[in-house]
Amino acid sequence: MASGSSGAENVSPSPASILLAKEAHIAFSRNNTTARAKRLGGNSTVEVTFWTADPPDVSFYTLYCKPSMAIPDADLEIQSWVTPIPVCKGGDVCIHPYVVGAEGRFVLLSALFGGNCRYEYFMYKGDPKSPSLESLPLPDDDYSLRRAEFAIVPRGDDDHYLLIALRRVLKMNNYRLHIYSSEDATWTTKELPNPCPQILIIPDKAFVIRDGLLLWVDLLRGILVCDVLREPLHAEYIPLPEPLPKNRERVKQFRLGVRRFRDLTCVNGLIKFIEMEHREIEREIPDDVPPEKPVDPRTNDVLYDSDLITLVNDKPMKPKTRIEVSVDGWSAMTWTRNIGSNCWRKGRIVDVHDILVDDSVFSALLSIEKSESAWRLTFKNLSSAWPTLSTDGNDILYLKSTSTSGGGALVAVDLAEKKALKVEARRSHPFGKYLYSSPWQILRPCALANHLKMTPGIETSASQIALMGSSANEPNNTAIHVGETDSYESENKRPRQVSYYVL
What we know:
Blueprint: H1 4-9, E1 18-21, E2 25-26, E3 35-38, E4 45-51, E5 60-66, E6 94-103, E7 106-113, E8 120-125, E9 132-135, E10 150-155, E11 160-169, E12 174-181, E13 186-192, E14 205-210, E15 213-218, E16 222-227, E17 235-238, H2 256-259, E18 262-267, E19 270-286, H3 305-313, E20 321-338, E21 345-351, E22 356-357, H4 359-366, E23 383-389, E24 396-402, E25 408-414, E26 419-423, E27 443-446, H5 458-464, E28 479-481
Parallel strand pairs: 2-5, 22-26
Antiparallel strand pairs: 1-27, 3-4, 3-28, 4-5, 6-7, 7-8, 8-9, 9-28, 10-11, 11-12, 12-13, 14-15, 15-16, 16-17, 18-19, 19-20, 20-21, 23-24, 24-25, 25-26
Protein name: DUF1618 domain-containing protein
Domain DUF1618: 216-398
Pfam family, one: DUF1618
């Protein structure tokens, strides 16, 4: 066991909250956050590792499904295990590992494996000394829970928890709560009357306000508030502010489009909602092909009947045009309300034209433009969307900003100061490209990093920890703990070091 001082030297500080990418990278990698669990009813093992960074740098996690066969030493290099598609090398196909819940040190993952039509759930528990991963039993009606958003309610000494998903019951126009208790490892259901029968929400987010008081957020239809520990169950409905004028048609489109310009968070009982309105300029561009000239009968000596009949049916040719859409900036507006209030109160109104961009931020923005027109780049000319509100009790907004050449970065904007604060660092990392335009790769603010011990350098960490093979001495339990037992100091005493290679 390392001494207290040496343990502190290898630990990086943690931000109050991180921006965790909800989709996993399929790769073999390890550090002090690594934990693994055996799949239920199978011989393979799932291994999860987290790599955290200060926002606006993206934090992410890797997932690896270890096959039952032995793995040659030659495959220990981390780059050889990174795959562009979600396939676990030598093992099962893993489809779309996804974060479906996070609260404090708990992160709930779901994944679909080849040969199995049922989603499997894994609960990761952050711990600076011994993080763990647990494979959860499946409910009988798990099909209705596919990609459901779960609220995680810590119980007792913070080791046990409740998982609660809100699902619609269409025939009854009501809701049903699907509840998992870690204390007895069982699933139960409870009926929840709909307080607003003309509206049924599909949660995009879930928040734990306090013990048992939950908030389910549908960014299109509204909010449901319920104390799940109080009987009889009773819910309250909170409508969202009216869409901004240019968004009133957009909200009727495919639901994922709403997430492109809306977000909501809740901190210390204060609900904060934001909506962006994007301005676009449409121009008609004439086709390069000139229209056909009309036939002049004076040029023909003979007029055939078939040609004349064809001319009668022909319509005059019109010049072809195409519509070119260009970005013309955006504006954003926030609204706030307290739990129990009956109204929304206007917050910030910000236009991209008013946002200050200093030289360091501008230089970072230039790095994402790969074309020769980089010198003409301005913040307002970037396509900025997918807003993510900070959960640290400030007015920070994170935006995915992309250029016409396909480059992208995450930008932190202070809505109160109307200033671009920082751009995500652009360094190479071995897990592939972060897809800024992907509607599935949503960022989730969470406090997991406060419950982890991080060592600097992904390649160093991965190469120093040997791959654990199958062993007869390995305990045959569901939750398996992986990690060093070095002494640990509280995070406010940690020296500042780089924790990983950012995107």
